[in-house]
Specification:
The chain contains 2 helices and 2 strands. It is α+β, with helices and mostly antiparallel strands. Strand 1 and strand 2 form a beta hairpin. Bound molecules: zinc ion. Zinc ion binds next to loops.
Length: about 100
């Protein structure tokens, strides 16, 4: 037994599951995202539903926002960000931050 407990991070559990696993985050070649990140993927039907739901709620919460474009990696489909199209007339010319 160790005298002090160490923090158990993702690397710890990856190593536990597979002792030969490489250290540190494994990044995708296409977009440089962490493969193990708990992110959404637009190629996953369940994830896409969540993205749609998020956008639907966003449009309900922000009447000045015209539409939301989910941006994802064209190669692997990892969701990267939302781009919000804002009705500038209704904001009197001021841009709002998207979140
Ligand atoms: Zn990618």
């Amino acid at each position: 037994m160790a005298k002090y407990n160490k923090p158990l991070d993702r690397d710890y559990f990856k190593k536990k599951a597979n002792p030969n696993v490489k250290k540190g985050p494994q990044l995708t070649k296409c977009c440089g995202e962490d493969k193990d990140r708990d992110g959404l993927n637009v190629k996953n039907a369940d994830d896409w539903k969540l993205i749609e739901l998020y956008i639907e709620e966003h449009l309900r919460d922000y009447p000045k926002h015209l539409n939301v474009t989910p941006i994802s990696c064209k190669s692997c489909g990892i969701f990267l960000e939302y781009i919000v199209d804002i009705d500038i007339d209704k904001t009197l010319g001021y841009y709002e931050k998207s979140n």
